[in-house]
Design brief:
- By secondary structure, the chain is an alpha+beta fold.
- It has three domains: 3-83, no CATH class; 113-148; 173-247, no CATH class.
- Helices cover 39% and strands 16% of the residues.
- The strands form three sheets. The chain has a three-stranded antiparallel beta sheet with strand order 2-1-7, with no helix packed on it. The chain has a three-stranded antiparallel beta sheet with strand order 4-3-9, with no helix packed on it. The protein has a three-stranded antiparallel beta sheet with strand order 6-5-8.
- Helix 5 packs antiparallel against helix 6 (211-218).
- It is globular and about 75 Å long.
- The two termini are 17 Å apart.
- Bound molecules: zinc ion (ZN).
- Zinc ion (ZN) binds at residues 12, 14-15, 17, 54, 56, 58.
């Protein structure tokens, strides 16, 4: 459960401008659906890498803000997230690698949104077709007496044998440039670096169709650290599929 009690008063590292921020007692990262690039649909917590823009115009990371006080409430504004149209500027002017990585990760997911839209539309249409066929094969044969006695109508459940396809995933040159640079930076981090995520790296390589490097990155995940996401990505690498995939947990 996500619980918030009061606010934190924060100062920006660049110019000392003050902001307020919700004071989380607990966070819940549950979402309606997850995507292999780390995006979450209808999540209780915002998506993003903590990238912010100070009122003076400087880009920063939320974790760079210094907490100077806590309060029950405050009139101070929240510090702005970086809007998607500013991400290329943020990448071009980032004065440290950590900001560049955060901006490129957000840009990666941002550029995947158009595909996500096509994917949803395609899957909804295919699912509606599957259901229509199923309904013909499983008609509601209850007579008034069955209904009176509360007998349920047959309910549709997707089965493995039903078609499951997704649209072609063809990253643009802009996407490939961003993913290429991002995977280069992440690969250069030492294996023990907290900035290195082998799941993210494997997914970046996979979406570029670089399956050998994707395989190498995913093989560095320790067995005890493997979760639903990394297992799914490993499977997709095995099948040499580069498509972004939506899944549920
Ligand atoms: Zn500032």
């Amino acid at each position: 459960m996500t619980m918030i009690i009061g606010v934190r008063i924060m100062a920006a590292p660049c110019c000392g401008a003050r902001f307020s921020a919700p004071r989380y007692l607990s966070m819940n990262f549950m979402a309606f659906a997850y995507w292999t690039d780390g995006w979450r649909d209808q999540s209780l917590m915002p998506n993003g890498e903590g990238l912010r823009q100070c009122s003076c115009g400087k880009f920063t990371l939320f974790k760079e803000l210094v907490e100077i006080d806590t309060a029950e409430s405050s009139d101070l504004p929240y510090i702005n997230r970086v809007p998607s149209e500013l991400l290329p500027v943020c990448i071009a002017t980032a004065d440290n690698e950590e900001i560049e990585v955060a901006a490129r990760l957000e840009y990666w997911r941002e550029l995947n949104h158009a595909y996500r839209e096509r994917y949803r539309t395609h899957r909804d249409a295919e699912e509606a077709a599957n259901k229509a066929i199923w309904e013909v094969q499983n008609p509601d044969t209850r007579i008034w007496w069955d209904k009176l006695r509360g007998r349920e109508a047959p309910t549709y459940i997707r089965t493995e044998s039903m078609p499951f396809t997704v649209p072609d995933f063809e990253p643009s040159s802009k996407q490939l440039e961003n993913m290429g640079r991002l995977s280069e930076i992440l690969s250069n981090y030492h294996l023990s670096s907290p900035f290195r995520s082998n799941t993210t790296l494997a997914e970046l390589f996979r979406e570029q169709g670089r399956f050998f490097e994707a395989q190498e990155a995913i093989s560095k995940i320790q067995k005890q650290d493997a979760g639903v996401t990394s297992k799914l990505i490993a499977e997709l690498i095995n099948e040499k599929k580069s498509t972004l995939i939506r899944y549920r947990m």
